[in-house]
Input
Amino acid sequence: MKILKYNSNLLKLPLTIFFCLAIALTSWGSKDSLRNSIRAKSDFSKVIQKEFTISNRGTVELNNAHGEITVETNTGDKVEIEIVISVLAKSEESANEVINRIDLDFQSSEDWVKAETKINNVKSTWKKWLNWKNDDPSFTVDYTVKMPKSCKLELMNRHGNSFVDELDGQVRVEVRHGNIRLEGVNNSVHVDVAHGNITIGKALDLEGTVRHGKLKLKEGNNVDIESSYSHVYIDSAKELKTNSKYDTYKIGIINDFRNEGKYDNYEIESARSISTISKYSDFEIEALTGVGDFEMEYSGVDIAAVSADFDHLNMSGTHTEYKMHVAESATYKLDVVGEFSGVKYPSDLDVVFEKEKVGSHELEAYQGDKGSNSWIKARLTHGGIKIW
Output
């Protein structure tokens, strides 16, 4: 009886044939891609123009992707929309395939005009999979819109930049992977920005969210921002409320500021009132003129100048350092209780009570008028306070 011997080469043969075929097909695709890439691409375009009548308090809604939106304002009652589809392709046939995938939806009523870009996806093929050079046509869809200044605007843009002229109506914008500039809004503004930047000249009221982006505001009234992993620059505002994490804020002149956050860096030029609850954050404040309420953990607060007529500073925290320079002409009462915390104060303060022992420091003192209504209070654990 013959014994059949195991031959591993027999099992390897089908795999060898498969890989040889794959290499041959890939090589064919590569050569084909190389030949195609020799032919230069050309620009092809299609222009669509629409005009609508709208009431002076109506709403214009623009929803685009992969292109720019430019909004110009006027005092008329017309909405004029020009959309240019631009395609960079190797042939007119290839360009038309792309243009035919792009649908433009227009709707209107007396108080509403809408323009929306809808892009239909193309199905993958074996030829595209083997074509490693990826010579697919590229395209943009660009809007130019003229609208009444008094109207409301709702704008959404993905993978494109936008510019909006000054408006008197309310504005809502949503931006993904793009930048937008609002020249100025004499009304309320709502923003939702992710992976992009927004610049606003002025806004009466501003609220919204910024994620992985940048916001710049020159002038605002009431501002309410929720942000994360972002940079925010505000030159001036009356009231500013922030909910932040992993952010950098640079703030100019502010009246009232409220914050809840963590892992942030704040620079504030001047504020009348500051209230914050934060962790793992640093605050650098050039001037504080009224009230400061700080509840901090693993953080640092540095106030370069506390004005002579300030109201009060109330500070608590664990593993937090407070430093502040109080005007020499200020009169105030000082109340500090610290556990494992350093306490430093001006030598000319009048000390009413002080008790130091291992792990604790209690202090009651006053500067100037003992009956002053201004006061500084600190409750610290594993931190410190320095007043000079």
